[in-house]
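Deviation from plan, reported transparently: 2'-O-acetyl adenosine-5-diphosphoribose complex.
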Amino acid sequence: MLMQDKIQEARDAIASAEKLLVFTGAGISKESGVPTFREAGGLWEKFKAEDFATLEAFKRRPKEVWEWYRFRRNLARKAEPNPAHYAVAKLETLHDDFMVATQNIDNLHQRAGAKKVLELHGNIMRSYCLKCGHKVDESEHKLEGEVPTCPKGDCGGVMRPDVVWFGEFLDPKVLEQSFKFAAECDCCIVIGTSGVVYPAAQIPVLARRNDACIIEINPEPSALTRIADYFLKGKAGEIMPMLVEENPG
Ligand code: OAD
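Because the crystal trials were delayed, the predicted structure below was used instead.
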């Protein structure tokens, strides 16, 4: 099928969806300048996950791990949402029954205006205390120190980024809500993910099991392409606006 026809059919499927889910990964933020993980030049090529993204690594070298997260947080802060994030936010205004489930921690969906966002892997702008669990949103309150400590009362516990590390469980409430929405949706747009990290990658599979129409946007095939009804090969920032604009072209 011609790309143009595929886009038209995907647009129709999205427009007629009663319950619409958008599942995103690092690729949607690449055009905003936020690096992905598994591509050439991606984060996992330069940094070993076991040195930066596990609780053991944090306990061993909290200063270095914090330094790495501050570096990534600054990248995310400086980045601007791109046309794909805005197109997703626009879809939310067009569909009453809508949800974004994102693996990203960069806050760009929210900054583009999306409100119904399930953060599967946390949010790099937030931190929480290892001792008492107190959460701090650093877009509101800046934590001081190379390894910041809990500002609540006289707790003084060590703060850590509010992100999911390897070997950790996802927030059960967030996961349950995502799985439930996926199992009931009739259309799922999968954007910019390699689809290899579980349990997140189970989300479009559950949608597929409900016979939802699966639309994937990615410049390369992924582990999820086999379940896609429409694989739209290309960059999210270019394809997504075409799926949402009233009069494309
Ligand atoms: P990956 O780095 O594994 O995959 C990024 C995907 O984005 C690839 O399939 C690329 O082909 C695609 N891509 C690149 N440029 C794109 C563009 N302009 N538009 C659309 N797609 C593009 O990132 P994720 O799948 O998000 O987890 O990785 C999943 C999880 O693995 C992350 O959340 C993180 C990581 O370890 C944790 O840290 C827990």
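Residues 25-28, 30-31, 36-39, 42, 53, 103, 121, 164, 192-194, 197, 217-220, 222, 235-236 surround 2'-O-acetyl adenosine-5-diphosphoribose (CB under 6 Å). We consider this an acceptable substitute for the interim report.
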